[in-house]
Please model this.
Amino acid sequence: MDPWMQRLSGVMPVLPTAFDPDGGVDWDAMRAFVGFAVAAGVDGLVFPGFASEVETLTAEERTELLQVVVDAAAGRVQIVAGASAATVEEAARYGRQALDLGIAHLLLQPPKEIGSAATAVGDFLAAASAALPGARIILQNAPAPRGSDLTPRAIIEVVRRVQAVRYVKEETLPAGPAITAMLAERPEHLIGVIGGGGARYILDEYERGACGAMPALEIADLHVVLDRHYRAGEMAAAREIYVRTLPLLVLQAVYRMRLTKHVLARRGLPCTSVVRAPTPELDAMATADIDRCLDEIEDLRTCADARRRA
Model:
């Protein structure tokens, strides 16, 4: 299907960036991340985002990595490209690179330096969308101090003004009431709201009408199964996965990309746990705790593998 016609829904994990032991990009491991996600049955891939340590990547690395992701996905899954930047000019440059690769959906976090007023955010997104004709923008609303922490009212004002904004990724806490408020007043061109927050609140977000989720990658297969159970009305099965995976996701909120890469390595991917972004170290006790959480959901992962093979 034409990517410009596809709608976003379901599980769309944000890919981490793979680094080698010296902190350089590990291109082979990056391809393995894409393969893992596709095999898990995800509905889309997001790159780069906060979970990709985007602030630590050079412009050249961002460009080359996005190309690697597109090539490795080979049209098997939809891709959302992160185009966030400090200036309209930079955002437009990243956005044009994505559009040239056939990517229709661009994730844009307004720079927190412009503040949280609807006028300033609207000015930024209007200028960016004017430079990116045809793009379908996802307005990322991250919480402070990393993001702008926009109110639902401000977001609706921005969306009404900027027709290119077709989705909102809502990550403020609590996200649930914000999702309810936005969907109650959404303009016709706003297709949907997507949850973030590492899928730690995914069922509440879905119950309030979110069309999808953008968690981290480490248990994408289980998030896919949870999503499918939910959409089939199998709430008990969806909730079991949610409740049993939550301890690992609570730890992920603290150790972030370091935990994601550690878990992926434990699951057999050829990657290190090296990060560039400031992230708490995993000492022996933290690692043991994470490993216990992972072992305790081994049966769920086995069932997910069997479901994919069926």
Remarks:
- The CA atoms of residues 81 and 98 lie 6 Å apart.
